[in-house]
């Protein structure tokens, strides 16, 4: 959006997309305001714990400009896909930096994290965290058994028996491939202009992956599918390789904190192995399932 002057080390930061909140958490920065779409649990617990208390500033689609101004921020982090149209209003409140992260894959997420850190004058901290994360992802990759070539696919259930396919090159597909989990090559057809596309169960059956990670929440469940003959015919269903996972973690948070947790959860579910040196919070290394 051009140039803007930011404070040397901003202290009162407002973040207008979930991935930026995740990135701030990975840098141990506590924003004064975040968009949480009216529900704090839209942020994953590990991010909430790291950022502490915050003030809600509305939804990602419609941030509350009055509430943002009330917080007197010295830096606003906005997203080009959602907030380009209100950039002038945001900039009138505080210096505003705009990035594109909504459909970013693995490498783009790291690149944006570095840019966010630069705006915060925390480049050294970001590089150290990315180096640490890189080592963790390598450790998860070493848990993949030699010769296990099962191909995975991540999907979101939709209404009327449709599935939203996370395309090859999407955030979750990239994270899985980064740790050695093969992603269904047929997913390269998705997306066209985003990171996902919808198909019916028949279309899902044409891909017929070995493993399905099904991203669910209170409103998106597999209930409508389970009685379908097409669903029951899927290879992953027949072999018991269908894994319900938390949609907030797997497709909304999209930062470094969630990246490590997805890698841990995905490899733990598939292989039941913990990397040497222990795991991050979230998965019980003994079972591969969620920890209590």
What does this entry show, briefly?
Helix content is 39%, strand content 15%.
List strands and helices in order, with pairings:
Elements: E1 13-15, H1 18-26, E2 33-34, H2 45-51, E3 55-56, H3 65-70, E4 75-79, H4 80-83, H5 87-93, E5 96-99, H6 106-119, H7 123-141, E6 152-157, E7 162-166, H8 171-178, E8 196-200, H9 201-207, E9 211-216, H10 229-233, H11 235-239, E10 242-246, H12 247-253, H13 256-271
Parallel strand pairs: 1-2, 1-4, 2-3, 4-5, 6-9, 9-10
Antiparallel strand pairs: 6-7, 7-8
Helix pairs in contact: 1-2, 6-7, 7-13, 8-13
Write up this protein:
Residues 273-292 are annotated as: Disordered. It holds the Pfam family Peripla_BP_2. This is Iron complex transport system substrate-binding protein. Residues 275-292 have a biased composition (Gly residues). The structure is a single chain. With 292 residues, this protein is of the alpha/beta class. The chain has 2 domains: 13-139, 3-Layer(aba) Sandwich (Rossmann fold), CATH 3.40.50.1980; 152-271, 3-Layer(aba) Sandwich (Rossmann fold). The protein has helices spanning 18-26, 45-51, 65-70, 80-83, 87-93, 106-119, 123-141, 171-178, 201-207, 229-233, 235-239, 247-253, 256-271, and strands at residues 13-15, 33-34, 55-56, 75-79, 96-99, 152-157, 162-166, 196-200, 211-216, 242-246. The strands form 2 sheets. Strands 3-2-1-4-5 form a 5-stranded parallel β-sheet. The protein is globular. Mean pLDDT is 90; it is low at 279-292.
């Amino acid at each position: 959006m051009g140039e803007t002057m930011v404070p040397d080390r901003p202290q009162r930061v407002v973040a207008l997309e979930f991935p930026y909140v995740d990135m701030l958490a990975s840098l141990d920065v506590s924003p004064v305001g975040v968009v949480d779409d009216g529900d704090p649990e839209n942020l994953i617990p590990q991010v909430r714990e790291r950022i502490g208390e915050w003030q809600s500033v509305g939804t990602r689609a419609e941030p509350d400009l009055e509430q943002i101004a009330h917080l007197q921020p010295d830096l606003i982090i906005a997203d080009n896909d959602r907030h380009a149209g209100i950039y002038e209003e945001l900039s009138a409140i505080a210096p505003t930096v705009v990035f594109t992260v909504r459909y970013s894959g693995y490498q783009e997420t790291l690149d944006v994290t570095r840019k966010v850190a630069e705006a915060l004058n925390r480049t050294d901290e970001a590089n150290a965290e990315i180096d640490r994360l890189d080592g963790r992802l390598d450790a998860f990759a070493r848990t993949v058994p030699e010769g296990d070539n099962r191909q995975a696919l991540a999907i979101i259930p939709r209404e009327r028996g449709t599935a939203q396919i996370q395309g090859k090159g999407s955030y979750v597909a990239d994270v899985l491939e980064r740790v050695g989990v093969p992603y269904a090559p047929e997913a390269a057809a998705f997306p066209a202009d985003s990171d996902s596309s919808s198909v019916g169960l028949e279309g899902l059956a044409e891909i017929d992956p070995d493993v399905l990670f099904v991203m669910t929440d209170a409103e998106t469940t597999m209930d409508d599918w389970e009685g379908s003959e097409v669903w029951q015919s899927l290879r992953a269903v027949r072999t018991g390789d269908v894994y319900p996972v938390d949609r907030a973690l797997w497709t909304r948070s999209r930062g470094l904190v969630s990246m490590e947790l997805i890698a841990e959860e995905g490899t733990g579910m598939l292989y039941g192995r913990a990397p040497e040196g222990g795991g991050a919070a979230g998965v019980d290394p003994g079972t591969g399932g969620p920890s209590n």
